[in-house]
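>> Question from a student workshop board

For tomorrow's exercise we were told to take the sequence and the ligand below, predict the bound structure, and bring the output to class. My setup keeps failing. Could a helper post the expected result so I can at least see what it should look like? The ligand is pterin cytosine dinucleotide.
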Amino acid sequence: MAREVGRRRVRREDPPLVTGRATYTDDLTEPGTVHAAVVRSQYAHAAIGDVDTAAAEAIDGVLGVFTAADLVASGIPGVVRKAGPGPDAASNDVPLLASDRVRYAGEAVAFVVATDRYVAHDAADAVTVDAERLPAVTDARDAVSGDAPAVHDERPDNVAVETRFGDSAATARAFETADHVVRLDLHNQRLVPNAMEPRAARAAYDEATGRLTVTLSTQVPHRAGARFAAFLGLDRDRVRVVAPAVGGGFGSKGGAPYSEGPLAAWAAMQLGRPVKWAATRSESHLTDHHGRDISTTASLAVDADGTFRGLRVEGVTNVGAYIVWGSTAAKNLVTLLSGPYAIPAISGQFIGAYTHTVPLAPYRGAGRPEAIYVVERLVDRAAAELGLDPAELRRRNFVPPDAFPYETATGSVYDSGDYAAAMDEALDLVDYATVRDRRSAARDEGRFVGIGVSSFVENTGSGPGRGETARLAFDESGRLSAWCGTADHGQGHGTTFAQLLADELGVPYDDVDVYEGDSDDLPSGTGTFGSRSAAVGGSALVRAADAVREQARRLAADVLEADVADLVFEEGAVHVAGSPARAVPLPDLVERSFDAAALPEGVSPGLAATAEFVPEHLEYAFGTHVAVVEVDPASGEVDLQRYVAVDDVGTPLNPRIVEGQVHGGIAQGLGQALRERAVYDGTGTLLTASFQDYAMPRAADVPELTVGETVTPSPHTLNGAKGVGEGGAIGAPPAVVNAVVDALSPLGVVHVEMPLTAERVWRAVEDAAGD
Ligand code: MCN
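>> Workshop helper replied:
Here is what the output should look like for this input. Compare the format with yours to find the bug.
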């Protein structure tokens, strides 16, 4: 049988998704469902007095208007605990509904339920909140300057988390003895996650069974179930969370403690009616936890021959009004500061600052793009100052292929890689030498062509210790059903996992059905984030397949009258070792497994197994991306002419899906590099609260992408896979910024802050001319 893994199968999940037939949470319209809307703070910072709900309650069709006082009166906590960012973070609870203070514009103050969605929104408008506006701070550095309003009275310095890392003495020695030091101040701007489908929840409580069913647009059904149970004081097994079709998440639906789902569940229990809430697009902009927002000052110590000696990074992260996952990004950032390079000494400090902005959470890459941006901008700066070719400088410092496993100065252990091979492939694909020649020729004509390289490494798999569960079962017709605790929300697990299992068990691809997204299906599950599903979920499936093969061998031993130890499972049949003709095909064994009379003693009917894979390590995917641009210094317009990406994701299960993931990531990375930015004004009002003001990349902004690969399997996963979901968003921003700075270097431009809008590029040119 031809191998399925490695085939470029078209995604089986696409037909319903692209023809509008998929069911998302907000499509659920069971009779009896009532609708919720949220009263939100207009102000970023205000003291809250009376919340007057009388006018709203008087509206026909309104079933309830709930405030923080109602939650407390009903005996539930009124807060969700922060998501546990670790011992280095200050602790805070996130209120479900604000009571005495609001801390960001859009924070929930009251929850309205009505028979009709429009009535619910009208009623929300009719609630009057007695709010005394207070001064706000939205910039992280301002927040910790000692001269800013306190976001939480108990932390007047606004420091939410503080992390020191690395050996500062070793770094100091490297800086003292190195030939050169290059330094850059960078800001990695705040982004809105912008999933296609805004967040949504529908909750129904069944009095008879005492079970709550929450249909939720989520990346983590099991985790969400645990959160709902804890919040409502229900036993964990009384809560079922189902994720139907989920229109993307990018981290924003990864289990952060949002208010609306738990409130819908609580209201459903109070009212005895199923309650549905779905965010409007503006609510998404205002309240989906944002990403990035880290300012750094970074220096690289480098010798004249280009050898990297040390790296020092100090940064301030804007965690927003509550620390939700705020230190995760900083932690990922620190662990990746070596990039793909051997840098002997790395140290620094990060502060997470509270501000009057929506909380920060992981967003595609979650600290990894921020780290690689710092490193890759510094590497290009060093190349420019040393007069070295940027690709050559990278090559001289890559961790060599014979050095794996390689432990970096910040404690990450890279599993496997050949970083130069990936870069060489990318340089070949873009035809680096020719582009560099064209760039020189263009300069002679007064045109500004630039080429930017970015090489990266990224931790994937979300290990160690965070496992995944999978279950396999054949039915009597011979079809294989697979359940996995990962939760597809656009990645194509149904296709890739079926391919994986087809090979593992020698069954036709079309006979494998993959199910995810229902917490009732499996005793435990972790979910989909951190590019972990292929590596960790895939390994759990392989382990379950191992167990099924073992069962098949035991059944075959009876049929073949052979010792189990002499039997081999191969190509969908069990045969006696050395005698392939003495074989029983799997379909026969499946049939036999349901014949109780034929089963050996102690063997239960059916071929089925549940297994867990708990990774002990992370897997480090890597790659090199190259952008070619032409910049018009008079207008500041950037013309992205070519984009080449070479990603090494270990063993690709489905290269077409890998490519699709790389494309998607690059589109988001280009969005960050060129267009997107969440902007708060000084009062804490989000100025970019709609697509009119927040510039998402469109199809026309993404050039034809040339995607290549190298393949270095991970020794840590059972299928050789590393993750791919975030690589594009990591590689693209530095590739584009490096290209634009390269193009403008003859004009003295050394840096342009993202997003590289025409105005910013033009100003950078003007500023350089004025220097
Ligand atoms: N894959 C593969 N071979 C590999 C690695 C992955 O064929 N060696 C396939 C997988 O089987 C899966 C897809 O590629 O179908 C992505 O796999 P993986 O890298 O394991 O990532 P996850 O499935 O765990 O998805 C999470 C990742 C993250 S962290 C973000 S953010 C992101 C991303 O996926 N958000 C997405 N891609 C997204 N794609 C869509 N459409 N929507 C999102 O919200």
